[in-house]
Amino acid sequence: MSSVLIVDFVIFQPKAIIMSQKILIVGAGFAGVWGALGAARVLDGAGVRKSDVEITLISPKPELQIRPRLYESEPQRMAAPLRPLLDAVGVNFLEGSVEEISVHDKTVSVVSANGSTRSLAYDRLLLTSGSRLNRPPIPGLAEYAFSVDRIEDAVALDDHFRELAKRPDSPARNTVAVVGCGFTGIEVATELPKRIRELFGADAAVRVVVIGSQDDIGPDLGPNPRPYVSEAFDSLGVETVLGSGVVSVEADGVRTAAGTRIEAMTVIWAGGMRASSLTAQVSSHLDPLGRVEVTPDLRVAEAPAVFVAGDVARALSDDDGHYALMSCQHAIVMGQFGGHNVAADLIGVPTLEYRQPFYATCLDLGEWGAVYSEGWDRQIKLTHAEGKARKQMINTQWIYPPAPNRTEALAAGNPQASLG
Asked: What range(s) does the FAD/NAD(P)-binding domain occupy (predicted)?
């Protein structure tokens, strides 16, 4: 084959292509979408025709759910269509859910919306099936608690608030218990006072209570952002009940291990994430969050034809020992690397080691503003209105897929761009 692939100013000669080889990408979250762009970019740079290597993205819907925005109002708007983008770069889309992966046979089993099942073969697989909200077997949790894990969940919560607005004013109606004092719990809690008053009336005595088993709010955020979170909570009237986890959820409240009962007609669960269960089908080396331990180029050591990116990968992000988090910030870049590597490995050119040395955190704090920090030690850079402006830029522009323009879309798949 006479065409060449140019990566970071180095020219590679791809090996001969066997007709109709298949790259499958499982999951259309941030890692999956940018993974598809990364893979398409490699094949385009090598002059590989779609008839020689097909890329197929598999997901229940042809959309990217903008999950980091689901704490906001109007969650039904938080999805970006994918078919025009995928068509622009020559990536197939298959609507369905992958239920089984056989690394021995190099096949996946896909269940469609109508319940029919089909088996697809792959030559290389990129697993980007993401994460789901961890829901432990707490009595009443499944029956009574809401969440903002998926668009469907956030819409159900929105509908619930609208129904409550029709009920008589009462303390229980006006109280929301947010269980979980991490990133999601904080963003949900600080958004709620304004959101509920818009529905219940400006004079409604809204009460938002954040419950956490840890002794500090935002335990994973470190000490630098915490004073700003406390200031925002005080400003917005958000209460905390810390140091004791929830042991039961009821239709009209929650109870903690310490015996505290909070009457609330709305309970929102924000109790942490766990990787997709598909990880156990490709590797036996999983971390406590269910993520696959991957090699530096995001490969599964015991299944060399499988690469993993996003929330399902435990990947070293820099040379200082920091591992990627379950966040769109890491998923997008890891997707670029994973997509590049799954295609590069197939056509016989070198893969790249995943590296993402820059890390930033932007925490929305409702009407108070937001706090933006940089570095793993979270050095504060922007707060209040300036922080809010940065958060809005992230939420409305930076985390959305590129326009369905082939040149722009392929450029968005470049993993080297993240390294500056």
From this structure: 22-335
Q: What pTM was estimated for this model as a whole? A: 0.93
pLDDT digits (tens, 9 = 90+) for 284-332: 999 999 999 999 999 999 999 999 999 999 999 999 999 999 999 999 9
Spatial distance between the Cα atoms of 412 and 408, rounded to a whole number of angstroms: 6
> Phi and psi of 77, rounded to 5°?
-90, -5
The phi, psi pair for 398, rounded to 5°, reads -65, -30
Please give the torsion angle defined by the CA atoms of residues 130, 136, 139 and 141, in that order, rounded to the nearest 10 degrees: -20
Domain ranges of the chain: 5-133+274-358, 141-270
Q: In sequence order, which residues have a C-beta less than 8 Å from that of residue 273 and are 6 or more positions away?
A: 131, 132, 133, 134, 289, 311, 326
Instruction: Compute the distance between CA of residue 325 and CA of residue 302 in angstroms, rounded to an integer.
Output: 23
Please name the residue that has the structure tokens 């006006």: 174
Residue 308 β-bridge partners: 127
- What would the pLDDT profile of 161-192 be if each residue is shown by its tens digit? 999 999 999 999 999 999 999 999 999 999 99
Alpha-carbon distance of 18 to 84, in angstroms, equals: 28
pLDDT at res. 419: 62
Q: Do domains 5-133+274-358 and 141-270 have the same CATH topology?
A: yes
Tokens, residue 332: 């997008």
Q: What angle do CA 212, 157, 273 make, to 5 degrees?
A: 45
Architecture (CATH level 2) of domain 5-133+274-358: 3-Layer(bba) Sandwich (3.50)
* 72: helix, strand or coil: coil
DSSP conformation class of 126: E
**CATH number of the 141-270 domain:** 3.50.50.60
Residue numbers of the chain with a pLDDT score lower than 50: 1-12, 17
Token pair belonging to 399: 């985390």
- Beta-carbon contacts of 257 under 8 Å, excluding residues fewer than 6 positions away, are 213, 244, 245, 246, 247
Ramachandran category for residue 241: left, alpha or beta (phi over 0 → left; psi -120 to 50 → alpha) = beta
